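Prompt: Have a read of the protein record below and flag anything odd:
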Amino acid sequence: MTAATDLRDLLAGATELTIVCHNNPDPDCLASALALGRIAAAAGVDERRILYSGEISHQQNRAFVNLLDVDLATLDPESVRDREEGSLLAFVDHAVPGANNRVPEGTPVDVVIDHHPHDALDARFVDHREGVGATATILAEYVRELDVDLDGTLATALLFAIRRETLGFLRGVTRAEYDAAAFLHEAADADLLRRLASPAVSGATADAIATAIEHRTIRGSTLLSNVGRTSERDALPQAADYLATLEGVETAIVFGIVEDTVQLSARSTDSRVHVGDALGDAFADVGNAGGHREMAGGEIPLGIFADDAADGDALCDLVATVVTARLADAFGLEGVEGEEETEE
């Protein structure tokens, strides 16, 4: 028996499958959900749905949903807690109820497929491969082994997700990604891949990235930047990706206030640094943070900073001071204050 056949056998006994994406799902999560739905259909599951929380704000993620016509619905947390017999709950590209999703903590999960770092996971079926570069790689393997129909939409979704998650096969890539790409290539739509790779950028995203560039602080090979308030959550990882390419920079961390949370995004090519562990150590007591050695993120409820004396600019200043101090401590940076500063 293999993981793929174990999953098929579990699905074959179900009447319904609910696939929950993480908050603000990216192509790796969305493509994995799409593939799991196809596998479930092939196993005879008649009722299937893909749910998500948060927003799909990144222009590439919006293009992915629109161009591939991914059928999504908004998550009702209570609807997944109390399920009838034969109704399965699956997580793809995340793993724990209440962590980067709005599923109530303690909710039983039937299927977990993920490549992010985690401790022990609890589900009837778990395929957790921290060593691979993308969750979509795992799903592509299942599709191939189970001989699930691979049309242009599914092949394009999985191939684009793998390319995006590994930054064009340059970050965290393994032999498994190349094997998956070889399998998917012939069925994928090359024109659609190009359109997905070059979506239009909103003005708000450009403004947030410009702010991140302007407010950068560099100590040694580590860069920090605070964008203040922004409506574009997904501008932060885009800014981190760009700032990590600056000459002399090996680690870039960008943070900002998005609605009622502080969002963080980190990138690193420094073999001495595990940015996922560093962010987890810095913020685990106040929010959710972590990820891979080269790519990580975090979310902190803004409520922990709010009081009668902190609002508007004062709140932004308080967030900048506290977050910068924690990052400076976690990454061993000297002379970094909460003030915005640029060092060339």
DSSP finds twelve helices and twelve strands in the chain. Residues 338-344 have pLDDT under 50 and may be disordered. The domain at 3-197 is CATH 3.90.1640.10 (inorganic pyrophosphatase (n-terminal core)). The radius of gyration is 20 Å.
